[in-house]
Specification:
The structure holds 2 protein chains of 2 kinds.
Chain A: H1 2-18, H2 27-38, H3 52-66, H4 73-77, H5 88-92, H6 106-132, H7 137-155, H8 162-179, H9 188-199, H10 202-215
Helix pairs in contact in A: 3-6, 3-10, 6-7, 7-8, 8-9, 8-10
Chain B: H1 6-10, H2 16-24, H3 28-50, H4 53-70, H5 80-113, H6 126-136, H7 139-150, H8 155-162, H9 166-189
Helix pairs in contact in B: 2-3, 3-4, 3-5, 4-5, 5-8, 6-9, 7-9, 8-9
The chains are: A mainly alpha, B mainly alpha.
Chain lengths: 219, 190
């Protein structure tokens, strides 16, 4: 019996290298079949590697440096009015003798301007914090604060046009994700945020909106 | 060994967790990287269990499709590789039941139209006898013997993969080995 046991054990061990040894797996053909079933058509394919944080940094910095954030304010405040048509509204909004046209929307002008500025700054800060491996306390706190502002802007009837409302919807999601980040950088949650920014084209849309405001501004 | 894909190269330093998050976010590249990392092992395991390239390919595909669809429910109670192998073993077991039913029906048809062929001639050597005995083992014994004695998994891992208690795995291994011993004993007498 003991002899048999050793024999079985020895022979089974030999089978490891001889019995049903698979050849090279057909990885590409199998993947094609898997991809078609597991990733539904319509999900955007990304063929270039993601470099999440430098991209955030570059785009966010471009937003800050390349465009005047205040120029987008009229579009946020008053749908239909050419963007940047009356920048004085923002300046005079708080004065008693301010232009009466500004009265109902003026508070939004200041809030929206500050909001966009802070969102952009938050993305820059988060990119820095993540790159440097620092704690994310500040970004999470800022995101919570901006989340409240986002919801206020979205809830204000007629305060924003549908395009901007769509962007605010997406920013709300991103801010909620940032607010819920664990206090450790570089984890999968940050990757998820990057995915949300990427798949929803948040940064390019923000950039286009700002560029549009910039182009229509009176000289 | 083929060269790694670009996605695999990019994610070479990344861990499974980052890939899981990417897949859950709908990123195909993360899916491909995760697949590149684990598919060769899954395929080899499946092939060892089924001994057929076409079936190994099908079951491997099914394994990853199911894994991607259920990745959100992966609870990190074991390594991702173990979880994938669990799905693979489950796919093989359910798939082979279908295949066996089909082959049995097919064999019945063949038998009905032909005089039963004699079984293969005398076994030329011990190895062939052993492999034949292994292939003829009931599936519940064979999978445990293959996973433990050929693939080198622990009883704990096999228990997770097959969904039976560790003690049952040990019993099945002992029973499977006993049947193999019987086959070899006959050979020894010959």
């Amino acid at each position: 019996m003991e002899h048999d046991d050793r024999l079985v054990e020895r022979e089974l061990g030999r089978l490891r290298d001889e019995w049903r040894v698979a050849g090279e797996p057909p990885l590409d053909p199998m993947w094609s079949a898997i991809e078609a079933r597991a990733f539904p058509v319509g999900v955007r394919r990304q063929d270039t590697p993601v470099a999440p944080f430098p991209r955030w940094l570059a785009l966010a910095a471009m937003l800050v440096l390349g465009f005047g954030l205040g120029q987008v304010v009229p579009r946020l405040a008053e749908p239909g009015r050419p963007a940047g048509a009356d920048p004085a509204l923002a300046v005079d909004a708080g004065r008693p003798d301010a232009d009466p046209r500004a009265t109902p929307d003026a508070p939004f002008v200041g809030i929206a301007s500050g909001y966009l500025e802070q969102v952009t700054a938050l993305l820059v800060t988060l990119a820095n914090e993540t790159e440097q491996g620092g704690a994310l306390d500040y970004s999470r706190g800022q995101a919570r604060s901006l989340l409240a502002t986002t919801r206020m802007l979205l809830d204000a009837p007629g305060a924003v046009d549908p395009t901007v409302a769509g962007l605010l919807d997406d920013l709300e999601l991103v801010l909620a994700q940032i607010a819920q980040l664990p206090n450790r950088p570089g984890g999968p949650d940050v990757y998820l945020i990057d995915q949300a920014l990427d798949q929803r084209d948040v940064l390019p849309r923000l950039r286009v909106m700002l560029a549009s405001a910039h182009d229509t501004r009176p000289y | 060994m083929p060269p790694p894909t670009a996605a695999a190269a990019w994610l070479d330093g990344g861990d499974d967790e980052a890939l899981i998050t990417g897949v859950l976010a709908g990123d195909r590249r993360a899916g491909r990287a995760l697949y590149d990392r684990h598919a060769p092992r899954v395929y080899r395991l499946v092939y060892r269990l089924v001994g057929d390239e076409e079936l190994a390919r099908e079951f491997t595909q099914d394994t990853f499709v199911k894994a991607f669809s259920r990745l959100g429910g992966f609870r990190r109670e074991c390594a991702l590789s173990t979880w994938l192998h669990t799905i693979a073993v489950s796919m093989v077991r359910s798939g082979m039941r279908r295949v066996t039913r089909f082959r049995t029906r097919e064999a019945d048809l063949v038998e009905a139209s032909h005089v039963a062929a004699p079984s293969a001639g005398a076994d030329p050597d011990l190895r062939e006898r052993l492999t034949r005995a292994l292939e003829e083992l009931p599936e519940k014994f064979r999978s445990v013997v293959v996973l433990h004695d050929v693939e080198g998994y622990t009883h704990q891992e096999i228990a997770v993969m097959t969904g039976v208690p560790e003690g049952t795995c040990k019993t099945r291994l002992a029973n499977g080995r006993a049947k193999l011993r019987e086959a070899l004993a006959v050979f020894a007498k010959e």
